[in-house]
Design a protein that fits this description.
227 residues, mainly alpha, three-stranded antiparallel β-sheet, 3 strands, 4% strand
Length: 227
């Protein structure tokens, strides 16, 4: 008991070490792009970002180079950085890759172990709370975790890493879809429940069918064929 009482005091005296300046700028801009505070087409200047984060322009340049390499922005010398919009082709490519990975993964997840079912139930409950509160950015993160949990359950590290590479693009698209189609949120939650029910019942084809319909809807949205 004595140690527990003293520990917080000792910790509070320790200096808080901030991440390097370039990392802080990188996190600030990337989060802004992913949660759409910085919309596609927005021009960001080094001076504005330096002021917003409280750093000099040198680490801003370093951070922007990293973000350009990730395909989130495009640098224009002496002008700034343009936030790249999500293109229809990018959406189609991400959906195609997701379907290949997720349909395979959900079939492989059957019979689903109790631990997987429990984790998915918890994520679905959290996503319902976030959606009800209107926190679409957080709901998109949880949405992504729900699907990633199924992919990881297959035990294929190469597929898991491939899927993780889609993370940022998925989050950005998820927030955009939820904000522009708030009626879709309830359907997303219902389809997650269907996936969970199919895994519970041990029906791999039913689970793959729901995944196909659930993930494929985004490509119909990109082509203007919303249904």
């Amino acid at each position: 008991m004595g140690t527990c009482c003293i520990y917080p005091v000792v910790m509070s005296l320790a200096p808080v070490k901030q991440p390097p300046a370039a990392d802080r700028v990188y996190t600030h801009v990337k989060q802004g792009v992913l949660d759409r505070r910085y919309e596609g087409g927005t021009l960001l200047t080094e001076g504005e970002l330096a002021e917003a984060v409280g750093v000099s322009r040198t680490p801003v340049r370093e951070a922007l180079l990293r973000l350009e390499a990730e395909g989130l922005i495009r640098l224009y010398p002496k002008k700034g950085a343009l936030v790249l919009p999500v293109s229809a082709q990018e959406i189609a490519d991400v959906v195609e890759t997701r379907l290949l990975v997720e349909e395979h993964a959900v079939r492989k997840a059957v019979p689903a172990p109790p631990g997987l079912i429990e984790r998915l139930e918890g994520l679905l409950a959290r996503q319902r709370e976030q959606a009800a509160a209107g926190d679409f950015a957080a709901a998109s993160v949880t949405d992504r975790c729900f699907h990633a949990e199924i992919v990881r359950s297959g035990g294929n590290e190469i597929l898991s890493r491939l899927y993780d590479q889609l993370r940022d693009r998925q989050l950005r698209m998820g927030v955009a879809v939820m904000q522009s189609h708030p009626d879709r949120v309830a359907k997303t939650l219902a389809e997650h429940q269907e996936i969970l029910d199919a895994l519970r019942s041990g029906d791999p084809e039913a689970a793959a069918g729901v995944v196909n319909r659930h993930v494929g809807w985004v490509s119909h949205l990109a082509r203007g064929e919303v249904r």
